[in-house]
Amino acid sequence: MTLLKTYLMSGLALTVATLAATQAQETIALVVGKGTNLENLSTAELQKLFRCEKSKAPDGSKVTIVMRDAGSPEREAVLASVLKMGESEYLKHILLATFTGAVQAAPKALSSGGAVKQFVSSTPGGLGYIKTSELDDTVKVVRIDGKSPTEADYPVKSAK
To answer: What pTM does this model have?
Structure first.
């Protein structure tokens, strides 16, 4: 009986560890609505869009940025991997840009991946990000520097 108990506990511990590792390494996907023509953005273009320094895609179409709420692992991953800044630095940047009139308002922040998917699928030019496990047929993945989230050198690292 003790051997069986040890085996079951070991199996449970391994399962929990595997799930935790999988969740800790989940990649973030940049997404738009299915009808959007946007297929690829360079890291530099993405930085300008998320810093609100630019409001149009390379094809000239208007882009509306949506982000996850402050403190979410997805937002932290995008800020660190793409914008190379933390939350406080990003907020200072947006506040200064709003104060000087460089931007009208900060990007909209939503509390869930489902809300981001709904926003980008119903907003022409909506651009946001979600965990790859949240991908479905309501959104389309945008490549970054020609890379998809399944490639090892995809620029947006992982959510914790």
So the answer is: 0.81
